[in-house]
Design brief:
Oligomer: single chain
Number of strands: 11
CATH topology of the largest domain: Rossmann fold
Order of helices and strands: HEHEHHEHHEHEHHHHHHHHEEHHHEEEHE
CATH architecture of the largest domain: 3-Layer(aba) Sandwich
Strand order of the largest sheet: 2-3-4-1-5
Number of domains: 3
Distance between the termini: 24 Å
Shape: globular
Largest sheet: 5 strands, parallel
Structural class: alpha/beta
CATH class of the largest domain: Alpha Beta
Radius of gyration: 25 Å
Number of helices: 19
Strand content: 5-15%
Helix content: 40-55%
Amino acid sequence: MKFYNRTSELAELQRIRNLSFSDHSRLTVVTGRRRIGKTSLLVKSVESAETLMKSTEALPTVYLFVGRKNEATLCSEFIPIIAQSLDVFVPDEIRTFRSLFQHLMGLASGKPFNLIIDEFQEFYNINESVYTDMQNLWDTYRKKSRMNLIVSGSVYSLMQKIFQNSKEPLFGRADNIIKLTAFDLTTLKEIMRDHKPDYTNDELLALYSFTGGIPKYVELFCDNIKLSIDEMIEFMVRENSSFIDEGKNLLIEEFGKNYATYFSILSAISGGINTQPEIEAALGDKSIGGQIKRLIEDYNIIVRVRPVLAKEGSQTVRYEIKDNFIRFWFNYFDRYRSLIEIKNYKALQSIIKSDYPTYSGFMLERYFKQQFAESCKYRAIGSWWEPKGNQHEIDLVALKLEKNKAVVAEVKRQRKNFKPELLAAKAEHLKHKLLPKYQIEKVCLSLEEM
């Protein structure tokens, strides 16, 4: 699959690189969940810069991947990479990253170059003092060198801690923090047009539901030419599929060994148990306030959802998994692990296929909220429900930028199932309770409107 989108990120990386080379060293942090395309972006940014420069001008780049190895072993692997990339001599006897980084900063005092350090958070497992050493060396050499230093990492909680916790040595040292997110809907449509020009909206919804726009997952479907709904399901659910353990591998990187309670919480939420009392009851009345807080603030995996226009402190709260793929993984790969263990992939395929119309109905609602947000025409977007009962629940409420104008929508896969008189009654109730001065537009959003 070709490289898509990331236009603003590439422009920002180019701007920072120009400042690094013309003025003094800059440090950029690129974060984002695993499979989001951090390494591809960094490689592309260097390639783009090389094509913009004259062929007579070199643009040296050192790329170092921090594997979970002994520090001396890592350094011995890094030395020939640096020597070849910069065409310089690097002493073989260097055995600490501190000495290696000091050598690189010294080299950057003489000539500008890019230094990319991938999976930067792994130094926590190798030698945590590396961060203090780097801080001291960076403060010493930054103003008198021209290094474009880019560090990236896929463990969100650790990267957040390294650069945004005031007690950490590298706090405040990043000149820019770029957080990569999934492809937007416009890009997903472009990818579908390129790889399946006759795609249906239901197939687009399936790609969105299964991948959430995470580039690596999208790439797997495209490169293997699996873009019909049944093909996608069969490709994910088969022997040796990389999707089967992906959710577990992704989250254990974040949670570490004590992941059981977090997994139980996420499993409950994926199955529609989405208030704290309900989740605690499902977990045997276990208190989970601390874990919920960390899932939101430290791990960035779930979000609190309140009715649109509800006050920040409102107790009417539901929890949702932000990442479409993680939600799907818990719903099927985690829940039906017993089928996977006995290699009954056909049975799991059948379950997902029969569930798809219902499952994708919820995802269609999420799709339209994202579509409304990406249009930049609204100042607030959400759902609305009353604390008790759901007789007046509205799938989508969006307040327009124009004063006192709103859209309320019922989301249905098939327009034929829409009951306009029911939405009209709900809208009238909402207007009376919350939006008395508003002009409210009532619409049905279905597969046709995607």
